[in-house]
Specification:
The complex is a heterodimer of chains A (613) and B (176).
Chain A (H helix, E strand, L loop, with lengths): L19 H13 L4 H27 L14 H25 L5 H25 L27 H34 L2 H10 L7 H34 L11 H27 L8 H32 L2 H12 L3 H16 L4 H4 L2 H28 L14 H24 L5 H6 L1 H4 L28 H4 L61 H9 L5 H6 L2 H11 L11 H9 L3 H10 L5
Helix pairs in contact in A: 2-14, 3-4, 3-7, 3-8, 3-13, 4-5, 4-14, 5-6, 5-7, 7-8, 8-9, 8-13, 9-10, 9-11, 10-11, 11-13
Chain B lengths: L6 E7 L2 H13 L6 E3 L7 H5 L6 H27 L12 H28 L19 E6 L5 H14 L3 E6 L1
Antiparallel strand pairs in B: 1-3, 1-4, 2-3
The chains are: A mainly alpha (613), B alpha+beta (176).
């Protein structure tokens, strides 16, 4: 893989000409900076909802399930609707991590960490409902088959409601393990940059990770096997949830289409929620280079596919209801479309069938605003779908004398809003505490997905090496100075040169062999003997500043282009006076252009700059 | 987990290609690498270092099999021997109904077992503080480390020379 030729046609997955260090900076940065105002406000709002939820749950426990409007014959209302909705949302995370890993879709690395986190939080919210809807929440441990003194009285292993328990517990545990396994190396990255109490915390969280080759080998195996078992797991979980309905005898529920229909619907709503969260996250945390339009478009394609499956399932249900000539089944669908809940049915149809079809248009798929809007619409539609399945069917089943109507109480609505609060609170905390994008995995795909290697904009002369500033002298004759113009014969790393009409493609790696500091460009009495460039050509640098930079070991444009801004700032601050307040933000870029000989572009840019700022 | 007071001579590289080339040179010169540290898994590294395939997935299979048997046999015992109950007119030993839970427990045991095994075998865990060589290894540096406790000065010079010729950007020593 090291000398792979990568396609010019393929779109890059990481833009912005990133180096490994850039990736670390960009992705760990949000955990190190203080949160912005928008984060604080969002957290306050979700904590508000969370408190409302806690209050309503306590109210339910205190006053009993009578505080809800569940009654005959509607034994399941908003509680189970929300339960299935949240579980469905959780499915996207596992799908992105596990199934896309097995399909070797590299674009998953931009979103998998956040999607997995989302899965865990969603499953937490979902698991709340079976817990509290039983009424006697304080004996909810009866669900677990533990040896007891009541016989021992066992649970009913034949019931889908119990299969749910095992499925969701397993799903939660496996997702948590999978997510955390991936996080350990990333926490190590944060640890190594942290100081003080943060360092202690991340040291604990990173489990002592060192980056040893053998550990990485095992880590990759573990990830692969976890992905392999998580795939049938995620399919089985929502299948089992669908069995809650499908194994009953209620018309409209007792159909074999439910398992694949529910799974497709879960993936559908899950991806929509991932998009909703990711579009906001990438904007706020400035991660547009890692979660590109390609990622968004790919996710929209999945939404299109699964939304179409869901749409086809709806039509199949209608067809089979007619074809079976079974009056109760037929009535179930008449009731949905024309009965007292017709508004939820048509809302569902509009949101789930019509809106995903809009993603056939490439323009819409690649439009951030429309994607955001449609992702919310999809989630609303999927909520309606579960409501339609549960409430409308239960409201009017076999016996007309038992027909009723269900409206939620404020307590139920409050609990639902509370779960939204839990979810967003946990997600907001996650974005502050952990890297939102999988750092190690992104680095691993940089060479095959970064825009300096892949795609129509990949420059002909290979990548820029953004390593730390070093005193790169000239004893190595032509090797160093040519490193940006890639096509030096002797150093070619064996890339196939005959691709396309754009001339030879430079080696993917044209890193100069950096020499040891003790032999680079200095003679025995520590006098610099390497080449020097006129740094005053950079706007913002006069002769005095050039002198300061020379003293710090920066002589050439190449070195200046590689120097970190913080390093230059330190040099300036040490000099004090007027130099301490200079802003060297553009110097590196200017120096890069100077080194590459892009004088016209540099001049144009300098015309726009004012004193180098 | 490993012995303390190892004197380590390590070199840092800026790119995984350089790292792989350096390891090839080390193999040619029969230098015994103590360990290699990278910020992300580098493909092609394992065969170069002679790392054997991990047996983690075999362990995973065993754990999963334990889960299957546990689930299936337990449910079968409960509903045939311990307290048989007729549910919906189905037979006591209703195998199709046992399948979902059996599958879930297979996956659960496999996942938990493999993850715990992984941490134990690697010597990682909550609160473990492995001494690491350089904080930039988890950022963007690739490291080859040699243990030099019993090496003579000429051997150490040989190693330093190796780092010089393969293009390491830094060479340092540390005791971990």
């Amino acid at each position: 893989m090291s000398h792979a030729v990568v396609s010019r046609i393929r779109e890059p997955l990481i833009t912005g000409n990133k180096s490994y260090h850039d990736i670390t900076e960009d992705l760990v940065g949000p955990t190190e900076k203080a949160p912005g105002l928008s984060w604080v406000i969002a957290l306050m709002i979700s904590l508000g909802f969370l408190s409302l939820g806690v209050f309503c749950i306590l109210w339910t426990i205190w006053f009993g399930i009578g505080a809800w409007n569940l009654n005959r014959t509607i034994g399941w209302g908003w509680d189970i609707t929300n339960f299935v909705w949240w579980i469905g949302i959780g499915h996207a995370g596992t799908l992105i991590s596990a199934i896309l890993l097995l399909f070797r879709q590299k674009w998953r690395t931009g979103v998998n960490r956040a999607a997995e986190a989302m899965t865990i939080f969603a499953v937490l919210c979902a698991a709340l409902f079976p817990g509290i809807h039983v009424g006697r929440m304080w004996v909810v441990f009866f669900f677990f088959p533990y040896p007891n003194t009541r016989g021992p009285l066992w649970v009913n292993f034949n019931s889908p409601l119990l299969w749910d328990l095992f499925a969701i517990s397993t799903y939660f545990t496996v997702s948590l393990l999978f997510w955390y396994t991936g996080l350990v190396p990333d926490f190590a990255t944060v640890r190594d940059r942290a100081k003080g109490i943060r360092k202690k915390i991340y040291n604990f969280l990173s489990f002592g990770w060192t980056g040893s080759a053998k550990h990485w080998q095992r880590w990759e195996y573990l990830s692969l096997v976890l992905a392999g078992i998580a795939t049938p797991l995620v399919l089985s979980v929502h299948t089992i949830v669908s069995f809650d309905f499908a194994t009953s005898v209620i018309p409209g529920w007792h159909t074999t289409i439910f398992p694949p229909y529910f799974v497709a619907g879960a993936i559908f709503s899950g991806f929509a929620m991932v998009l909703t969260l990711m579009l906001i996250t990438r904007k706020v945390l400035h991660l547009e280079d890692y979660i590109t339009i390609e990622h968004i478009e790919s996710m929209n394609k999945v939404i299109l596919a699964t939304g179409s499956i869901v749409g086809v399932a709806y039509l199949t249900e209608l067809f089979v209801a007619w074809y079976s000539q079974y009056p109760y089944e037929q009535f179930a669908f008449f009731n949905r479309a024309l009965g007292p809940y017709y508004w939820s049915y048509w809302g569902m149809m509009a949101c789930n069938v019509i809106t995903p079809q809009l993603f056939w248009s490439r323009k819409i798929r690649r439009s951030i605003f429309l994607t955001f809007l449609l992702s919310i619409v999809v989630n609303i539609g999927m909520w309606f779908e579960r409501f339609v399945i549960i409430a409308t069917t239960l409201a009017r089943d076999y016996l007309p004398s038992s027909w009723s109507y269900y409206v939620p109480t404020w307590v139920e609505i409050g609990i639902f809003l509370g779960t939204m609060g839990i979810f967003f609170t946990l997600y907001l905390i996650f974005t502050r505490v952990a890297p939102v994008v999988a750092i190690a995995e992104i680095k691993a795909i940089l060479k095959t997905g970064g825009d300096q290697y892949v795609g129509p904009n990949a420059p002909e002369h290979g990548h820029h090496d953004h390593s730390h500033a070093h005193a790169g002298g000239d004893d190595h004759k032509h090797e160093h100075t040519d490193d940006h113009h890639g096509l030096h014969g002797g150093d070619d790393k064996g890339i196939d040169p005959k691709l396309g009409g754009a001339g030879t493609i430079a080696p993917l790696v044209s890193t100069p062999k950096e020499k040891l500091q003790d032999s680079a460009g200095y003679d025995a009495s520590r006098n610099y003997t390497g080449s020097k460039d006129d740094l005053t050509k950079i706007e913002g640098i006069g002769t005095k500043v050039q002198g300061l930079l020379n003293d710090a070991g920066i002589f050439t444009w190449l070195q200046l282009s590689r120097a970190e801004e913080s390093f230059i700032k330190t040099v300036l601050e040490k000099a004090g006076g007027v130099y301490a307040s200079m802003k060297p933000g553009t110097w590196a870029k200017q120096a890069e252009m100077a080194h590459e000989g892009k004088w016209d572009a540099l001049k144009k840019w300098q015309d726009e700059l004012d004193g180098g700022v | 987990m490993v012995s303390k007071n190892r004197e380590v001579l390590y070199g840092l590289y800026n790119d995984e290609e350089e790292l792989l080339d350096a390891i090839k040179v080390a193999n040619k010169d029969h230098l015994e690498i103590m360990d290699v540290f990278t910020p992300f898994p580098v493909h092609g590294l394992d065969p170069l270092l002679g790392l054997k395939e991990s047996r983690l997935h075999q362990a995973g299979f065993v754990y999963g099999a334990i889960g299957t048997l546990t689930a299936f046999l337990f449910m079968s015992w409960v509903f045939t021997r311990d307290w048989p109950v007729i549910f919906g007119g189905k037979p006591y030993w209703s195998v199709p109904a046992f399948i979902p839970i059996t599958f879930e427990l297979t996956v659960l045991f496999c996942a938990i077992g493999m993850v715990v095994t992984f941490y134990v075998v690697c010597g990682l865990g909550p609160g473990v503080t492995s001494p690491y060589l350089d904080p930039r290894i988890t950022d963007d540096k690739f490291c080859i480390a040699f243990q030099t406790n019993d090496n003579s000065t000429s051997e150490i010079d040989n190693l330093r020379n190796f780092f010089r010729t393969t293009g390491a950007s830094e060479v340092n020593t540390k005791v971990i």
